[in-house]
């Protein structure tokens, strides 16, 4: 186990699945050389571009054949992750597959079948840490996705570790987060102090833990609009076109397509389709496109809890004096992939951006195709991206300015703000410290902004051990004191009813020199190794070791006429002696008439310490004890011989020179088996007869004896 911890997150979106691999220092290593400021920081998460891989389409496309989602979809992504993470760290590496809007649109049964297949495949084909499918493999709601994105954005911006460097005024230091995918759109931000107090019940409490174990809390508003992603918005737009023009029209004019482009209703090129049905014909009128996409915001929906932004969903008032938003995903791709190529200015402002969109979308489709062939907009832009971008641009503009209300920088001032964004339009957003009301980004400090990073930040933070007994857990939930009923923990081992003890916490408790609960970890480790070797060395070696140590600890000779008491190591550590009964083991090895713990032919257990049922018809011995061989220990001169009439019933010769009290022997043996004393009756050939054991019929094992079968 190295100094790094790893984490794997699969973002299962509507258009594809992307695997992200992250790593961070184990807490012991992170604390070792950290200065006081670093100790008050969150764990440092690292990733690389080559650690990310995306495939198409999304997992939701396997709804009608869930059994194929593993071999045809997940296999390449999991192999990619396995190629990055060292094998010795795999079992300590959590894996999460978190599905978003595409899976939210499926039915409950279809969704659950897919999740079950995903979990089964991941468990069967990787060694990654996957203790609970319900926590690690799930469809997350849009608000959770938005919260993870907010964490990732502010983590990369450094506002959690250095809030003083991001003072936006009014004691506010965090950035708002905007995300738009194919099916949904999210917003997350911390309102100003006035709105926070007014809408406290609408906020989410989010708690993180620094390297030194101290905590930090944030209160965030987050919401999601399902069907407000670019693909779902486009579907609703086409349906509105059909409704407005009538069902019998075979060709619908579409102002959001470049002039001269003809496609099917779902955006496919009709040139290779014999019967495309109703088609769309581009007119290239971007101003009309903006007008026709505006109703999709549903601004007139009833608002049950004022204020609302769009679709009747409540959002606290946004103070653009202090709330500066960073947009990712489609906000970045739509504003930069085409409309920034060939331009020096990369910063977003409404006026410049709309002029560029107008210029592009008013071209004939033939001119755009020629530009694609010449890589005028870069190698990543193909025909599909080119004819989709005009609708996407109009939808982004409407969402940002008419929906969320972000000021149109270049046309409108940020009212009440001392920051004049207009004078800084020629500067890049990062150089300005992202102080515009909106800035689209793809990376911050060379790290891609993805909500998956927020998930790992939360998880890594939760793995930091805390010294305080009453420490509050890491996670998020309702904005109430303590731990709310709906509190969500980053992983299953942190749940209050979890019996697991996480490996890093165990490691820190033993070996972290800064922990007051530290125990002599090295000594305990050596003890465990010695104990393991003892039990692995074999039964015969253990017995020899026991005898050798016992000889060293034994004091003085035993009286020859009394049973030997267990002294030395056996009396101190009885568990080292198998069953703790050396005396009975001697009888087992040498006395065939008085077997200890044998097993009936029918598989039932015979009472240990009782004479055999066949005592009346003794058999010749099939084996003799090694103690009766030529290798007998010095001083041991008696032999075991059941054929002599001079025996006393246990095969010990009367001429052995040792006078043993038979009654005492029998009473001792039977008392160890918790038997009632039995008076010595008549003997036959030196043996006593007895009735059958009452406990034998119950097939019970003696509580103080270990049957042979168990050896």
UniProtKB/TrEMBL annotation:
Instruction: Name the residue ranges with Polar residues bias.
Output: 623-633
* Region annotated Disordered, chain positions: 597-644, 668-711
Q: Where's the active site on this chain?
A: 145 (proton acceptor)
User: Per the record, GO CC terms?
Assistant: Golgi apparatus; membrane
The family line of this record is:
Belongs to the GDA1/CD39 NTPase family.
GO BP: CTP metabolic process; UDP catabolic process
Q: Which parts pass through the membrane?
A: 519-537
Q: Which GO terms describe its molecular function?
A: ATP binding; GDP phosphatase activity; ribonucleoside triphosphate phosphatase activity; UDP phosphatase activity
- What keywords does the record list, in alphabetical order? ATP-binding, Hydrolase, Membrane, Nucleotide-binding, Transmembrane, Transmembrane helix
Q: Where does ATP bind?
A: 182-186
Species annotation:
Penicillium cinerascens
**InterPro entries in the record, alphabetically?**
GDA1_CD39_NTPase
**This protein's name:** Nucleoside diphosphatase
Q: Which domain of life is it from?
A: Eukaryota
């Amino acid at each position: 186990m190295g100094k790094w911890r790893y984490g794997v997150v699969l973002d299962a979106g509507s258009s594809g699945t992307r695997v992200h691999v992250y790593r961070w220092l184990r807490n012991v290593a992170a604390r070792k050389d950290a200065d006081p400021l670093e100790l008050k920081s969150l764990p440092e998460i690292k990733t690389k571009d080559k650690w990310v891989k995306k495939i198409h389409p999304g997992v939701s496309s396997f709804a009608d054949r869930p059994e194929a989602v593993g071999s045809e979809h997940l296999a390449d992504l999991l192999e990619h992750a396995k190629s990055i993470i060292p094998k010795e760290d795999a079992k300590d590496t959590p894996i999460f597959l978190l599905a978003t809007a595409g899976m939210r649109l499926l039915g409950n049964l279809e969704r659950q079948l897919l999740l079950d297949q995903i979990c089964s495949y991941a468990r069967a084909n990787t060694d990654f840490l996957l203790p609970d499918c319900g926590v690690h493999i799930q469809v997350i709601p849009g608000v959770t996705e938005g919260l993870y994105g907010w964490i990732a954005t502010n983590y990369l911006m450094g506002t959690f570790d250095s809030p003083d460097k991001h003072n936006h005024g009014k004691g506010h230091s965090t950035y708002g987060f905007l995300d738009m995918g194919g099916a949904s759109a999210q917003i997350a931000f911390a309102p100003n102090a006035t709105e926070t107090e007014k809408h406290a019940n609408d906020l989410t409490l989010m708690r993180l833990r620094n390297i030194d174990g101290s905590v930090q809390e944030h209160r965030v508003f987050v919401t999601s609009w399902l069907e407000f992603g670019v693909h779902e918005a486009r579907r609703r737009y086409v349906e509105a076109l059909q409704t407005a023009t009538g069902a019998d029209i075979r060709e619908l004019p579409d102002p959001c397509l470049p002039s001269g482009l003809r496609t099917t209703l779902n955006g496919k090129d009709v040139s290779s389709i014999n019967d495309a049905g109703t088609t769309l014909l581009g007119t290239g009128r971007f101003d009309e496109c903006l007008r026709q996409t505006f109703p999709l915001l549903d601004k007139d929906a009833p608002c049950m809890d004022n204020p609302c932004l769009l679709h009747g969903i409540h959002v606290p008032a946004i103070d653009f004096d202090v709330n500066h938003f960073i947009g990712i995903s489609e906000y970045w791709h739509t504003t930069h992939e085409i409309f920034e190529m060939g331009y020096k200015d990369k910063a977003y402002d409404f006026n410049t951006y709309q002029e560029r969109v107008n210029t592009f979308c008013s071209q004939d489709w033939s001119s755009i195709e020629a530009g694609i062939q010449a890589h005028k907009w870069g190698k990543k832009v193909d025909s599909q991206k080119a004819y989709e971008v005009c609708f996407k641009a109009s939808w982004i503009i409407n969402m940002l300015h008419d929906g969320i209300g972000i000021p149109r920088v270049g046309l409108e001032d940020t009212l009440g703000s001392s920051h004049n964004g207009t004078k800084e339009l020629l500067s890049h957003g990062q150089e300005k410290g992202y102080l515009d009301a909106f800035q689209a980004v793809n990376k911050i400090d060379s790290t891609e902004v993805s909500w998956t990073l927020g998930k790992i930040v939360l998880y890594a933070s939760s793995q930091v051990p805390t010294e305080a007994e009453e420490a509050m857990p890491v996670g998020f939930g309702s904005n109430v004191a303590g731990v709310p009923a709906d509190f969500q923990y980053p992983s299953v081992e942190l749940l209050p009813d979890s019996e697991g003890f996480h490996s890093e916490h165990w490691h820190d408790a033993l070996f972290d020199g800064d922990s007051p609960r530290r125990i002599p970890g090295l000594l305990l480790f050596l003890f465990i190794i010695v104990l393991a070797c003892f039990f692995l060395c074999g039964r015969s070696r253990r017995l020899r070791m026991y005898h050798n140590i016992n000889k060293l600890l034994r004091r003085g000779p035993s009286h020859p006429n009394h049973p030997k008491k267990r002294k030395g190591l056996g009396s101190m550590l009885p568990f080292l002696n198998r069953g703790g009964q050396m005396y009975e083991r001697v009888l087992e090895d040498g006395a065939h008439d008085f077997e200890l713990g044998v097993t009936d032919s029918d598989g039932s257990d015979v009472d240990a310490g009782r004479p055999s049922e066949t005592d009346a018809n003794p058999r010749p011995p099939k084996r003799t004890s090694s103690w009766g061989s030529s290798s007998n220990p010095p001083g041991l001169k008696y032999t075991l011989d059941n054929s002599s009439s001079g025996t006393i019933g246990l095969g010990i010769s009367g001429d052995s020179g040792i006078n043993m009290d038979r009654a005492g022997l029998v009473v001792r043996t039977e008392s160890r088996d918790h038997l009632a004393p039995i008076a010595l009756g008549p003997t036959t050939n030196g043996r006593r007869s007895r009735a059958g054991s009452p406990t034998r019929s119950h097939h019970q094992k003696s509580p103080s004896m270990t049957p042979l079968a168990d050896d």
